[in-house]
Structures are given as C-alpha cells and as structure tokens.
Design a protein that fits this description.
about 120 residues, mainly alpha, about 45% helix, elongated
C-alpha cells in the first residue's frame, strides 16, 4: 500500500501563521500605509470618466497615485464615445449575443433527426 505525506492529516485547515504567504504580508503592509485621500479618489473618478476606463479601488495612497499616473497616461475618449456609453441601454450587447442564437426557422425536425433547414 502506498503512503502519502498527508495520510496522517486530520483534515484541519492549515495554520496561515505558520507559513505566511505573499498575500497576507501584502495586506499587512497595506494596513500600515496611509489610506487614499478624498481628493485622490475624486481625481481618480474624474480621470476614469474622462478616459472611459475603470479602476480598482485603491487601499493605499501609493496605489491611488499609481492609478492616477496610469489614467493620466491614457488618451481621453471623445465626448461622442462617452455619450454613447452613457446612453447604451444594453441593446448593443443584446444584439451581439443574439447574433449567434439559433432561430426556429433555421432548423427542421426534433431531437436526433434535427437538421439545418438552410444550407450555406
């Protein structure tokens, strides 16, 4: 019979303090740094609106500054593009999804005898 290193494991959750990984140390570091200011967050929203992009909510002031630099480097979208995105009610998305849909007039038969009614 083959034995495996985890045969004596009791099925308990691992102790994360015994072997901390990069994620926990990064979160600990983020707690020590200052939070982003309201001014930074407002500027981020304005830049994102100007460029037509989104951003992840920064946890620290340094992350907010990095996002600001990234968004400032992008070219602004035109006013027409922004107006179309605001006006988009999902009709464009629905049309794209429906373009691959199979309609009743395209098939003949049922189950295993079903075939295409139109050949290309």
């Amino acid at each position: 019979m083959t034995t495996y290193p985890h045969d004596n494991d009791l099925g308990l959750a691992p102790n994360h303090n015994a072997h901390p990984d990069d994620r926990t140390s990064a979160l600990d570091d983020a707690r020590d740094e200052p939070r982003p200011t309201r001014k930074q967050l407002a500027y981020l929203r304005a830049l994102a609106n100007r460029s037509g992009q989104t951003f992840g909510c920064p946890r620290t002031a340094a992350q907010a500054s990095a996002e600001i630099r990234r968004l400032k480097a992008t070219s602004p979208s035109t006013s027409i593009e922004r107006a179309l995105e605001r006006r988009d009610d999902g009709a464009t998305r629905e049309a794209a999804e429906d373009s691959a849909a199979i309609h009743d007039f395209e098939v003949v038969g049922h189950g295993s005898t079903c075939t295409w009614s139109q050949r290309s």
